[in-house]
């Protein structure tokens, strides 16, 4: 039993392997949060955390003059706007009479032995127990149903809320966030993951201050600029020690994550749909379901927190045939050819790739309509037979005959003004009639909230995907939303369009992925602009960044690893000088970095040297050999890139400690400067390990304890001469347990 209810104390305790989550119903019927953290072993923490009286914090009517019951001073589960809690709220509503002060009280609860499916929204799945608590406004029949599903193995609680209107009149929802996490203290840092196109998910760690730190998106997608995942941790928390709480939203649209320190020096974290630009009209009898958030606790530092997310998302978020299956090593033609390709060029790249062991060719942007450049043809998902002569079936047969699979790029949510689709349906893009349209990458956005639009795109994609033996789809999205307005909805309901857009995208994805269960879908949005847990429910892998520079990727993949598994991180070896930075890195280094993700190539293999081709052959073999260690193993960040960026080191260790892979890459070499010590992780302390370098040379045999606690000095870059270059040197060491 992971969910306990004490009827006398009206106390709920959710137990996971290492954590407890506790809340209770107070004397006035309000649901108060008590604890999420270390295991309490059955005890209640009620009565120990009160801040005491503070003036200007009002008591609700039912509490008379009992100011200690002020919602402003007590820890909440689902705080509302308008009833005396002045901190960040989860819900704001306007009743038919204009009143805006709901008072949510406990009404009932149920314990379910499974996780309810959130219709039309991503959600965790798998074996778990769920607590469903129904709250009711004291004055009307407005209900809020809170869901808590307990994934005990990963110390994770999946939370969401459903607002149900039985008031007999319409209700306007002004804010409907997913979850709140209140703490009786605030000596914390916030880690968030900011960025820009081609430089996503950079870690920023900042102490909380009085007031609010909010990270958010109003771009219509989760965005490159911020990520719907934050961590709150002790100031002293490291990779291996300290309390950390992760809050990750399973949603791909506008979000807000807010960490606030209040007048009593208590911290509140809220996460959910961004209320900016949002409103929802709820008729009597209707309900609104928020997206889900996965809350994870670790008392053993940031590393354990990440590993819990990795396993939870790999096993209980990603779905379908490809969730846990070994992904094919692919070659993508984007950086190899951009728009300048035809079937002969593709087949010639594929021939070389097949010979080197690569398993799939992905035909990127440019195969359809009149798409000779990025000014036109989005929306015309019909093969261009000038480029792909003989059509897709013929190309696919030729690729399959080489023993390779074939994949295809789409950008389903977009429309070019110079397209057949736009000429036929100029009103299908997001725009406000009578006003201008903002362009970005020369394109407009389709109104995915409209069923007829989705149906049309679906039918075109379905026809292409049924026309040949496709194994993979890259689902791209290359601009953010503007002019958000839909012809489907009346003026007073335009605040629903951002969310309905996301629901529309999810619906189209669900439909196509159900129809083509064997196809591996990879997400993309100008690289990693929609790298979120919502998308991972539909795509088990996402192109991590348009930046393929191995050195820059170190930081991008480092940040991404905090909340997302390695098997989700699309990563390729590309040509040098690199197309984004102009930097030249060794081929070996590019391989080491790309191998910490879903491995592939993105360059013309006919243009590289024979020696590099041999490296490709060796890399593919090595990736296959190490696949399960990299994807199923435990991932450890060995050096803190927020402190130094000269050297990056990370490790994969098998769960049972039988083997490990240590990766080291130099981003900056300094003269006369000894490299740092590396302390390995995840080994069996009293077992012996043989350590071999990436030339196959045995370095020696040491015990796990020695390698973990005494450590080893990172090699100096000059030792990488074996690869012909010391700039940006990379090393891989394999550890094999002998006894
Ligand atoms: C985006 C993607 C790239 C490529 C181009 C094609 O930028 O991230 O990988 O597919 O679109 O236009």
UniProtKB/TrEMBL annotation:
Residues 29-283 form the Glycosyl hydrolase family 36 N-terminal domain. Gene3D superfamilies: Aldolase class I, alpha-galactosidase from lactobacil brevis, Golgi alpha-mannosidase II. Keywords: Glycosidase, Hydrolase. The active site is at residues 476, 546. GO terms for biological process: carbohydrate catabolic process. Belongs to the glycosyl hydrolase. This is Alpha-galactosidase.
